[in-house]
Amino acid sequence: MPKPTFLRLPAAKQERMMAAAKVEFSRAVFAKASISNIIELAGVPRGSFYQYFEDKQDIFFYLLETDGQRFADSFKEIIEAHQGDFFAAVTEFFDVTIDRLLQSDDAQFYSNVFANMSFKSASHSAFGEAVHRPTDAKHYLEEHIDFAGLKINTTPQKQLLFRTVMGGFAQSLGYHYNHLDGEQPDTVADVKKRMAWLLDWLQNGVLLKEDTHA
Question: Which of 8, 11, 60, 162 is the most exposed place for a label (fewest CB within 10 A)?
Fold first, then answer.
């Protein structure tokens, strides 16, 4: 987290520092990113940087946290637009989020972020903790999703549904980033197709209906 000195800066200076950090973490993966480049882009002395953050990891985690909050806010807006319809909301959210992650001006930044994560142990890694840091989003979802038409009543069931959907999303992204090269590179359309399959299976099941064979 940033130090109080950073939080007392005018908003424009905070934004300039974080924009410089995003440029640098887009240029290089975390291990190769440079504080020197960040402060040069931001136009601040090295001493000032350490008045704002402990180290490179500190500003990186804060960048992930603030960026993650924007995703959470976007999800809330989509849920409200769909009046709590879970599957309609997550369908739209994944569609716009996949475009943002993979096709926006920030696509290289997100690629570098995922390059630092182990998808088998993301929830236990330092990078995973930054990306999956709890927010008020979970409680918001429980209160604003319409569960009337779902076979879900308890909090553990609701949380399992959220984890299943978001876990499938993370795995699909991981597969994408690991299969960008080769004879059949994974595409944005492939990511969206996998998410459509997952949501369809959750909604309608994977068993064929009896009348399908009639």
Answer: 11
